[in-house]
Amino acid sequence: MRATRLYLIRHGQVVNHHEYRYNGHFDIDITPTGVEQMRRVSELLSIEPIKAVYSSDLQRAVKGARIIGKALGLEPVMVHDLRELNLGRWEGLTREEAIARYPEEADFSFKDLATSKVKEGESLVELRARVVPALSNLLDRHRHESVCIVAHGGVNRVVLSEAMGLPLEKFFSIEQDYGCLNVIDYLDDGLKVVKLLNGGPNQDMRPTEIY
Prior knowledge:
With 211 residues, the protein is of the alpha/beta class. Helices cover 31% and strands 18% of the residues.
């Protein structure tokens, strides 16, 4: 049975990674380390028969997509609906800064995103509602081909959750390190097979921090 293959990548390390800020739609760049992470992924993918490269339109994903596209001889296409989860008025802030500014949200936990959200932001249900149709359109466009998407931790977790039939409450059970590679095969009978999860040349085995 023939498959459509998705190479799904998280963008490289961001410039404020050490500050634990909520970036969401906050448009920040990647570090030299992030550039190197994308270069390593591009080297790995350069021998694969990838027909198209897509990315979120935020620069941290765009830069990675251009590095990969260059290795493949492809011009990346930006897709607005592949943006990270909108974190509303917490964007660009640390948790401490957000609570100081909005004390009424001091009890908010990102582990509850499946059922709640930051004011002016999105829930996981809303994120899924824009990401899944966008992905379906791209996969339909490239039926029986291989495509690459450079996106974000939240977007990737939604895609992987859908592929594995996991409820959104299990969202944070899926790790997505900077520069990681996931491979998913979409079969003609509707079956989705995750061939690789949070792998590739940049795999990070340090303890997980959810913030």
